[in-house]
Design a protein that fits this description.
The chain is of the alpha/beta class and 601 residues long. The protein has 19 helices and 18 strands. It comes from Helianthus annuus.
């Protein structure tokens, strides 16, 4: 029902439309207060070490009567502050929170504050993303008789998109941390209009305006750590501090250097200003390591220095948010490793030229524009004379328990609890569960259009070719062979999709009704052939699997969780099937291994 109903002359004869409009109006108000709580929660940024952001607004039917935000971990909860501010107005009022309270210490401070004060309704932006806290406060409040409405669950998604997005953005670091088990990483750089981050000589001070650089100081203050590569230390002698005087949070400064061929005199070795860690290759320049230690710089050796291992290390230290301020060599390595989630590019209206002048991202091994990584949720902001372009390389995992919906989850795997089961997101092949992707290079053996068992280089090759098997158009056979010999899964996908789009007459008539069956067959073959993939799939037992593609609304979750996630569903179904019948499963694995041996990889 749309608000246009208000303007129809006959609306007085349609009481349901009035009810719906009022209903929408209430939801719009709910959404605006939740958004206000999310905006409030962001206020503590830069003051203390990054932590989950909590904000709370208490409102009566007429006004906002109290609000608060968590200043730092361990300080008075946002909910308690809001209750104290609202005083006696709490009785019968509604409390709005951007995120479900997380009673980490088990004392239910926030929840009891609401109950004792007489709050009757609580509207929650998002459930707490941490497994052991998710749903707990909501359940307790409901048990105590309060009405609890969660955006997207009890309040329909259509009217609350902005509010929900604010809730996700404000706690993106925690959401990535809990879903992907790495800290949230932002790559930031300043480049000229001709795409250079320094002159050919390596000189780079300054590309962006003073205003942009102040913005960067704020980004640093919101981060747990700032990372650069050894080369940037040699060229720039950076300080990497947020410059907010005596108060405020100081991020850890981290240098990644394999060689440790670093200068003896450097701003980063002055740890009176801020602490510094140097991450290096095991055994590198021991004498220099000693020198750094004598300066108070911590040196951490890695067996193989790479962005993923460094992120795992920082995850174990409890870090939430990392700012990468490196040059193109390290940024390319970090992007390839799949650890960068967001990009902030400051573009300055300057041209420096220079064939060998460095650019923000080095070699990624891509050869065609179709392989380019596309940012999502892109925003453009003018800062001084520069334009700041920001966007996500990976969608914020919103941990929405309705992927798939409650009923569907239970139908697929009755052992799963839609609210309490962890969610495993997979998308790119280099992700931790990247082998679940149909783009993973795992050849399978299945019949071709003549019924002869042949090798398909990936599930993607098989799936795309099947679109044209049994087509009424005799020319369709040519496409099957062309797709089967595509050089990569990406190429097979492009060919299949393009042909389907440009020559719909080539596609078999029953494709829409058969495509899930085709996919299931291919997945079953893949996960039977490769014992390690089979173990990986079974190891996810108890978790909800979600293909995190922002673009694919059928096989993936879509950008905002609106996708149908059929790939995740089929994998869960397959997992149940494998787990359900041990003997059949063993037989399938044995047959699979036999097939595997027949594949000429
Ligand atoms: N405008 C801007 O926003 C910025 C500009 N710059 C400019 O960029 C230039 C430096 O660029 P660049 O050389 O790319 O600098 P990087 O910051 O990317 O440093 C590269 C160095 O990082 C170390 N490293 C450690 N692990 C890895 C890994 N897995 N992959 C790649 N490198 C790794 C190596 O150090 P080692 O050799 O010690 O082993 C390597 O030489 C300078 O001129 C600087 O002024 C730099 C940052 C931002
Ligand atoms: N040149 C350049 C940036 N360069 C980045 O900032 C670092 C220097 O930081 P500091 O020593 O703390 O001022 C430098 O090593 C590099 O990482 N940043 C920007 O916002 N704009 C610019 O034009």
């Amino acid at each position: 029902m749309t608000t246009a109903m208000w303007f129809t002359p006959s609306f007085t004869r349609h009481p349901t439309s009035i009810i719906n409009c009022t209903y929408n109006h209430h939801h719009a108000l709910d959404a605006s207060y939740v958004k206000r709580a999310a905006d409030l929660s962001d206020k503590s940024a830069c003051f203390t070490s990054p932590h989950p952001n909590f904000g709370c607004v208490i409102a009566t039917a007429r006004n906002v009567v109290g609000e608060g935000y968590l200043y730092a971990q361990g300080t008075k909860p946002a909910e308690v502050q809001a209750v104290e501010a609202a005083g006696e107005y709490c009785r019968g009022a509604t409390a709005y929170v951007n995120m479900e309270p997380g009673d980490c210490h088990g004392d239910f401070t926030a929840v009891s504050a609401f109950i004792k004060a007489g709050i009757t309704r609580v509207v929650v932006g998002i459930r707490h993303p941490l497994q052991h806290l998710r749903g707990k406060a909501i359940q307790t409040l409901r048990t105590q008789g309060l009405q609890v409405d969660v955006l997207g669950e009890d309040i329909p998604s259509i009217s609350i998109q902005d509010a929900l997005k604010s809730c996700l953005v404000v706690n993106a670091p925690l959401l990535y941390r809990s879903a992907c088990r790495v800290p949230f990483s932002v790559l930031k750089y300043a480049m000229t209009l001709d795409g250079k981050i320094a002159a050919t000589s390596g000189h780079s001070t300054w590309i962006s305006s003073t205003k942009s650089r102040s913005h960067v100081f704020e980004l640093r203050g919101r981060s747990d750590a700032v990372i650069v590569g050894g080369s940037t230390v040699r060229k720039d002698n950076p300080r990497l501090t947020p410059r907010h005087g005596s108060g405020g949070h100081l991020p850890m400064r981290i240098v990644m250097s394999q060689t440790l061929d670093l200068p003896e005199v450097a701003n980063l070795w002055d740890v009176r200003e801020a602490p510094t860690i140097v991450a290096t290759q095991r055994g590198a320049r021991r004498s220099f390591q000693k020198f750094l230690a004598s300066k108070g710089v911590e040196v951490v050796e890695f067996d193989s220095l790479n962005p993923k291992d460094v992120m795992d290390y920082l995850y174990d230290l409890g870090y939430l948010s990392i700012l990468w301020e490196c040059g193109g060599a390290l940024s390319a390595s970090a992007i390839s490793a799949g650890v960068i989630h967001k990009v902030h590019a400051f573009v300055a209206p300057k041209i420096i030229g220079g064939k060998n002048a460095p650019s923000p991202v080095g070699e990624l091994g891509m050869v065609e524009m179709t392989q380019a990584l596309e940012l999502i949720d892109v925003s453009y902001e003018q800062i001084g004379s520069d334009v700041l372009i920001s966007g996500y390389l990976q969608p914020i995992p919103d941990m929405t328990p309705v992927i798939p919906s409650v009923d569907e989850t239970l139908a697929i795997d009755p052992s799963l609890s839609p609210y309490d089961s962890p969610i495993i997101f997979f998308y790119k092949t280099w992700d931790p569960y990247g082998s679940f992707s149909n783009f993973s290079s795992h050849p399978i053996r299945l019949p071709d259009e003549n019924g002869d068992c042949v090798t398909w280089s990936s599930v993607q090759h098989y799936y795309q070719a099947q679109k044209f098997v049994g087509s009424c158009n005799p020319n369709a056979r040519n496409y099957i062979e062309v797709i089967r010999s595509a050089k990569s899964p990406e190429e097979a996908a492009q060919m299949g999709r393009r042909t389907q789009r440009e020559h719909p007459d080539m596609v078999r008539a029953d494709w829409e009704s058969m495509k899930r069956e085709v996919m299931y067959k291919a997945l079953k073959c893949k996960f039977s052939i490769y014992p390690h993939l089979n173990s990986m799939l079974l190891s996810t037992s108890g978790s909800i699997l979600v293909e995190a593609s922002p673009h694919d609304l059928f096989w993936g979750r879509g950008r905002d969780g609106e996708g149908l996630n059929y790939l995740g569903r089929l994998l869960m179904k397959l997992r149940s099937e494998f787990l359900g019948d041990d003997d059949t499963h063993k037989l399938e694995i044995l047959q699979g291994i036999e097939n595997f041996n027949n594949i000429n990889i």
